[in-house]
Design goal:
Elements (H helix, E strand, L loop, with lengths): L4 H29 L7 H26 L5 H29 L3 H7 L3 H19 L8 H6 L1 H15 L17 H25 L6
Keywords: Membrane, Transmembrane, Transmembrane helix
Length: 210
């Protein structure tokens, strides 16, 4: 399987669009919470995505000019950040927005930096990865590797909450304001959801079994 010149060109545009949207989102996030923005999974995953998408755009430009394909390690990184962004998107849609209240989905998907970080960047990343960047195919072991950023972030923030170094930043990390079984349930739900997302994105992106 080969990526067409049109796919490469559209991939470049999509990845540069994510870079541009994140550059727009950063000052909005900073105005809202200042340095605390770096404690949020959403912000960290979008900053990660900005860097990866810039590299992806450069590699796709090179592939467009030479007739080749992007390196496997670049597509693996794009896959990983796509999984992180989709975890953000689905957590907002099904957990955080309902917690916010009746206007939760509007506020958390369509206002300020959240328009970019919660909605536009995840959707653009998924569509570009699945439709425009299907080569080279990724092995099944990429699914486990895509879990690493979430496991690292979750482990650090959970430990910080248990040690009372920091509270949150998400309600399901409030370990001293909910029963132990609730905290355990959230760990299972979030990590299980992340694994399911990673598998689904891998499958939709044309992953190979070996």
């Amino acid at each position: 399987m080969h990526t067409t010149r049109l796919q490469k060109f559209l991939s470049i545009l999509a990845n540069l669009a994510i870079v541009g949207m994140e550059l727009r989102a950063i000052p909005l996030s900073w105005d809202g919470v200042h340095a605390q923005m770096f404690l949020f999974y959403t912000e960290l995953s979008n900053l990660f995505a900005m860097g990866v998408c810039f590299v992806t755009a450069l590699c796709q430009l090179r592939a467009l000019l030479t007739g080749g394909e992007m390196p496997a390690w670049v597509r693996t990184l794009k896959y990983t950040v796509t999984c992180c962004l989709m975890l953000t998107f689905l957590t907002v849609v099904f957990v955080l927005a309902p917690m916010y209240g009746p206007d939760g989905h509007y506020v958390m998907l369509l206002t300020s930096s959240m328009l970019y970080n919660h909605f536009l960047n995840p959707v653009t990343a998924l569509l570009s990865f699945v439709l425009l960047e299907r080569v080279p195919a990724l092995p099944r072991r990429a699914v486990g590797r895509a879990m690493i950023p979430t496991l690292v972030y979750g482990g650090i923030m959970l430990a910080a909450n248990i040690a009372k170094v920091y509270k949150g930043p998400y309600p399901f990390l409030y370990v001293y304001e909910q029963p132990l079984w609730t905290s355990c349930m959230w760990v299972v739900v979030i990590l299980g959801g992340a694994l399911l997302i990673a598998w689904a994105v891998w499958k939709l992106g044309g992953g190979r079994a070996a």
